[in-house]
Amino acid sequence: MSGDGHVDPGGPDLTKHPAPGSGPEPVCPRHPGRISYVRCQRCNRPTCPECQRQAAVGVQCVDCVRENARQSRAVRTPFGGRPTDGRPLVTYTIIGLCVLVFGLQQVPSMTITSDLAFVPALAADEPWRFVTAAFLHSPSFLLHIVFNMVALWQVGPALEHLLGRARFVALYLISAVGGSVGYLLLADPTNPFSWYAPVVGASGAVFGLFGATVLVLRKLRLDIRPLVGVIVINAILGFVIQGIAWQAHLGGLVAGSAVTAALVHAPAHRRTVVQVTGILVVAVLVVLAAWLRLASVGVS
User: Fold this and answer.
1) Distant-in-sequence, close-in-space partners of 146: CB < 8 Å, separation ≥ 6
2) Greater pLDDT, 285 or 6
3) What is the rounded distance in angstroms from the CA atom of residue 153 to the CA atom of residue 139?
4) pTM of the full predicted structure?
5) Among candidates 15, 20, 46, 21, which has minimal Cα distance to 32?
6) Where is pLDDT greater, at 237 or 221?
7) 130, 180 contact by CB (below 8 A)
8) How do residues 152-177 score in pLDDT, each as one tens digit?
9) Which of 147, 183, 191, 195 has the highest local Cβ count within 10 Å?
């Protein structure tokens, strides 16, 4: 202020930023009893040390940090899944369960094979067999579980990474049930060796993953020819080698491909809704197919 009593226009405006003791003290909105001259870089409100969060420049209040986190889009895989840390935990878990169950199948006193294998004649009364059969393997044929686990290890980790763990679990389980339903649809009720035969193995689920991998690679515009060759060879072996349930392979392939079609072709702007709806629709159709088949033979 000059000597004649006029305000110096170049001086600080104390009414806008009052100095300590010259006006109401700025207080933290979250803690009104705490005076703070430090302000949030986003909202410019006073923020006490407890509510301060370090930012690239200055500090932000905890409310702005939370709001920013809500508005930030989460990183997603190309098909909407949450990125993993690189470890295929679901694939590891499935392989571990299959190996554990295979070990239990070797115990003479255990009846796990007969209790959990899929049998068309028992499907209506014991529906859990549609799923549990995929975690069993022939107890007397070691190569059965070896082939399936090697195939699962070949395609499982990549699919789990691209789809996300939740979507991969849904794909695997629906493919497994689809394999059992495929066998049920093509089994002959008048043939005891077909209708009462126990079916075990992860082959149906693995074929579902084969179909999924083909669709994923096509969507990413990658070469699918090597995988198609593997599928064709395994399909032929299903017809050539006696005792292999090719019907389960076919059922798993169809179910897994249908689920994956919903996952990879869902529009980005409403991906989650379309994907969840697609998964539920395929699951309902698989269950409906089983129910109609059982009803047609009078055992539903």
Assistant:
1) none
2) 285
3) 21
4) 0.73
5) 46
6) 221
7) yes
8) 998 999 999 999 999 999 999 999 99
9) 183
In this prediction, residue 240 carries a pLDDT of 65
Angle at 46 between CA 40 and CA 49, to 5 degrees: 80
Alpha-carbon gap, residue 251 to 232, rounded angstroms: 15
**What tens digit of pLDDT does each residue of 79-129 get?**
777 777 678 999 999 999 999 999 999 998 889 999 999 999 999 999 999
Tokens found for residue 38? 């430090």
Mean of the per-residue pLDDT values of the chain: 85
Query: What's the average model confidence in pLDDT over 243-270?
Result: 91
The CA–CA distances, whole Å, from 13 to 2, 39, 40 equal 15, 18, 21
The 3-class secondary structure across the chain, one letter per residue, is: CCCCCCCCCCCCCCCCCCCCCCCCCCECCCCCCCECCCECCCCCCECCHHHEEECCCCEEEHHHHHHHHHHCCCCCCCCCCCCCCCCCHHHHHHHHHHHHHHHHHCCCCCCHHHHHCECHHHCCCCCCHHHHHHHCCCCCCHHHHHHHHHHHHHHHHHHHHHHCHHHHHHHHHHHHHHHHHHHHHHCCCCCHHHHCCCECCCHHHHHHHHHHHHHHHHHCCCCCHHHHHHHHHHHHHHHHCCCCCHHHHHHHHHHHHHHHHHHHCCCHHHHHHHHHHHHHHHHHHHHHHHHHHHHHCCCC
Q: How far apart are CA 183 and CA 251, in angstroms?
A: 7
Amino acid at residue number 130: F
Under 8 Å between Cβ of 171 and 160: no
Q: Measured between alpha carbons, how far is 57 from 130 in angstroms, rounded to an integer?
A: 58
Smallest Cα–Cα separation from 257: which of 179, 158, 144? 179
Under 8 Å between Cβ of 235 and 187: no
